């Protein structure tokens, strides 16, 4: 459904070359729901803009729905829906009219268009704002309308560029439900970009992690996390006990052990199931554990492990936008 080979895009700014996307090889089958996860500036939007024919690749090739994004732009566009980061809705129109005219433009009868419009208004919590001109909606409401417009025509392939940025948690959940339904009921192939870890985790069967224009991981969220393993954090009474605990923990298959004072951290593929025996052994050896926490890995741990940086550092911008929506709504 989507295939790229060596897909590359450079930009030139102030005589400097920015390698936004660097040699992306990608294969997405019909009916997949895929999340591109990466920090701001990773190259997610640029990739989507090439796949939707909005910008041309500098090198490499991409096929979408069997059509080449450079040679068959019109055919690609007919096969896809795209919700970009900007606002799609015309400002002087009412939200309900925007949805109606989109639905009619895509061939729905007046009756079906009205039903679809009301369904989407309700799904995105827009019913009571539907008769206001778009220019008078808050940022979050406008964002929801944009996404609703992208969902009107139920295309074979849908690209959503950070659709939930600026939405409050409730509307983020509504959006995710709509996306999931579209994928499950209509078999729509969906590519969504996000820097929300929870969203990639909750929504997508497959997560493609992008950093500095390259794909650095491609698997299900579950597989990415289980490859990393659980984190077992232990507190011991003395630094000597901690050293003894570290030696014992090191015997757990695949364990990575770090010691800091009286704290010992063990990252291991089956850390959760290994922890009880570890604690029992340490107690029997006279070096008992005084505090214990076992946490499963998050996608942020996966990103941290791959890049040495946390994805959450780039997340606060989005959280601030959420507060803005609350104020404006
Ligand atoms: N039109 C452009 N001109 C110059 N540089 C650009 C342009 N578009 C993107 N870039 C640069 O390309 C890199 C990748 O940007 P891109 O928008 O694809 O990242 P992203 O992962 O989508 O991040 P975000 O979440 O902020 O949209 C960044 O360094 C960005 O500044």
UniProtKB/TrEMBL annotation:
Domain of life according to the entry: Bacteria
Entry keyword Transmembrane helix: no
Gene Ontology BP annotations: response to antibiotic
GO annotations of cellular component type: plasma membrane
Annotated localization: Cell membrane
PROSITE patterns documented for this protein: ABC_TRANSPORTER_1 (PS00211), ABC_TRANSPORTER_2 (PS50893)
Gene Ontology MF terms in the entry: ATP binding; ATP hydrolysis activity
Keywords tagged on the record: Antibiotic resistance, ATP-binding, Nucleotide-binding, Transport
Membrane association type: Peripheral membrane protein
Keyword Acetylation: no
Signal peptide location: none
Domain ABC transporter: 2-237
Stored Pfam families: ABC_tran
Annotated protein name in UniProt: ATP-binding cassette domain-containing protein
């Amino acid at each position: 459904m989507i295939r790229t080979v060596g897909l590359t895009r450079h930009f030139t700014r102030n005589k400097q070359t920015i390698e936004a996307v660097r040699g992306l090889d990608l294969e997405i089958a019909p009916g997949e729901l895929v999340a591109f996860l990466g920090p701001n500036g990773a190259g997610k939007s640029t990739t989507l803009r090439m796949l939707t024919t909005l910008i041309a690749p500098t090198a490499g090739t991409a096929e979408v729905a069997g059509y080449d994004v450079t040679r068959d732009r019109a055919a690609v566009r007919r096969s896809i829906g795209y919700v970009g980061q900007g606002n799609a809705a015309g400002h002087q129109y009412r939200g309900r009219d925007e949805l109606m005219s989109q639905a009619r433009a895509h061939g729905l009868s007046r009756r079906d268009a009205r039903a679809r419009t009301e369904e989407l208004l309700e799904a995105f919590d827009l019913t009571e704002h539907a008769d206001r001109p778009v220019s008078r909606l808050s940022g979050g409401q406008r964002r929801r309308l944009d996404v609703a417009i992208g969902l009107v025509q139920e295309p074979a392939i849908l690209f959503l560029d950070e659709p939930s940025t600026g939405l409050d948690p409730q509307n983020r959940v509504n959006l995710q439900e709509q996306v999931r339904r579209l994928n499950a009921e209509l078999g729509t192939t969906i590519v969504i970009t996000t820097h929300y870890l929870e969203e990639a985790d909750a929504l997508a069967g497959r997560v493609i992690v992008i950093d500095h224009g390259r794909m650095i991981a491609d698997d299900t969220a579950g597989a990415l996390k289980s490859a990393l393993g659980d984190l077992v954090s232990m507190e011991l009474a003395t630094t000597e006990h901690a050293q003894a605990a570290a030696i014992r923990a090191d015997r757990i298959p695949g364990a990575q052990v770090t010691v800091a004072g009286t704290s010992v951290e063990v990252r291991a593929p089956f850390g959760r199931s290994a922890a009880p025996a570890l604690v029992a052994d340490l107690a029997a050896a006279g070096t008992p554990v005084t505090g214990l926490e076992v946490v499963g890995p998050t996608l942020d741990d996966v990103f941290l492990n791959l890049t040495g940086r946390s994805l959450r550092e780039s997340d606060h911008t989005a959280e601030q936008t959420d507060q803005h929506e609350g104020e404006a709504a």
